[in-house]
Structure formats: structure tokens, C-alpha cells
Predict the 3D structure of the following.
Amino acid sequence: MNRSLLAAVLIFTLLCAPAIAAPDPQLGAVEASLEMSFPKVQVERIRATPITGIYELLMPNGEILYFSPQSRHLFFGEIWSSDGHNLTRDSKAELMTAKIDMFPLDKAIKIGNGPNLVIEVVDPDCPFCREGSAFFAGRNDVTRYIFLLPLERLHPKATEKARYVLSAEDPILAYEEAMGGYFDDEPIPEYKDNGLLDEHLAIAKKVGLNGTPKYWINGQFVSGNNLQAIEKLLTKKVK
């Protein structure tokens, strides 16, 4: 059997498969086959997919791979249903939703006191993060807990801005100024680094985040600046 790791994107179109796979009694045998075929691959969970003979693997870094025990191939990519539904994205959202308790809210920048709980992971120089911040700004129906994840490879000045924001005497004001672009042209004021950004970075690594923006809206995970999806999840009204 060919045991090579296929470095091509696998996209399945499901013509007649159900959206949720039934429990598979063969998972023990699948795990044994995976260990025999790829002894160095460590997984946190194995479960069946809607495609017979293809199994979903949850990796320690939060990524999802697929395994065929019959052909002993390992795949990466996405599974789509015939109606255009991305089942891989659903699995990732489910996994990320379960990680909400990994955020220590006392370490976040808290803005607002509304009934809808929002956790944001953002980069102060990310244009999509800024758009999301503007969406939430001024709303009275949200309580926001903001964690910073500067992506220095994309935004070289973001790390310094994030350190300043989290170390500032008024983090809310500093955050709003940074997200509003004030420090794009103006120098960052002097500050004493309190080390909070390092804690935010460690939290993001533990959760398995490497991009922004990411949101948890009333416990439900939303990846990217999908404002329409976010609005639908803001279901609690101000009394």
C-alpha cells in the first residue's frame, strides 16, 4: 500500500451523504491502522465522516486531517456537501467553540456591560479586525472581552502597538485609538511593559490560534469578519 502523505488538497463532494456521521464501531481498528501506517502522527481524536471509509483526525494544533485506513493514505483539505456546505469548517467551529473556557476573562480588555458576551481575538493593525471593532463600538447590547494577537509577519508594527495598549493606564482608550488608526502615523507614547501581551500570546497558542479576527459570540465561534453571522448570534436584548 502507498503510505505517502498526499500534499494535495482533498475536496469531497457528497452526493447522498448525511450531514452528521453515525457512530462507527470500527474506530479502534482505525486507530491501530493509523498508528501502523503513520507511527509519528499524534492525534487527539478520531471520528467517522459522512464518507464511508474516511475518518476525521483532530491534530494537537487544532488542524483537521483525513485518513483512509483501507488505502492507508493521509489527506488534508475540506469536505463539502453537494449543497455547498463546508463540513470541515463546521468541525473546526465545533472544536473552537469548545475552547471558550480556555480564555481567562480577567486578562482581557473589557468593554461594555451588555447581555451578549463577546470574546474577540484581534490584531491592532488587521483591517478586518478594525472593521469588526467598529461594528461593536458604541453598541449597548454587548460585553466585549478583547485579547490581542499581533501578527508581526504581516503587520510589523502591531506588536509594539499591542504591548502599549495592554500596558496603558487606560487600555480601553489606547485600544480604541489603535484600532482607529491613530498610531499609524503618530508615535506610540512611552510606557512600561507589564507583560500582559506575552500572556495573551500564550493563550492564543494554547487555544491554537494563528490568525485574526476570531470571535466567540454567546459561546459560538465565528472565524473571520463575518458580520452577518455575528449579528445573528447577538440574540440577547437590552432590558
Observations:
- Residues 1-22 have pLDDT under 50 and may be disordered.
- The beta strands are 5-14, 45-48, 55-58, 64-68, 73-81, 109-111, 116-122, 142-148, 214-217, 220-223.
- The radius of gyration is 21 Å.
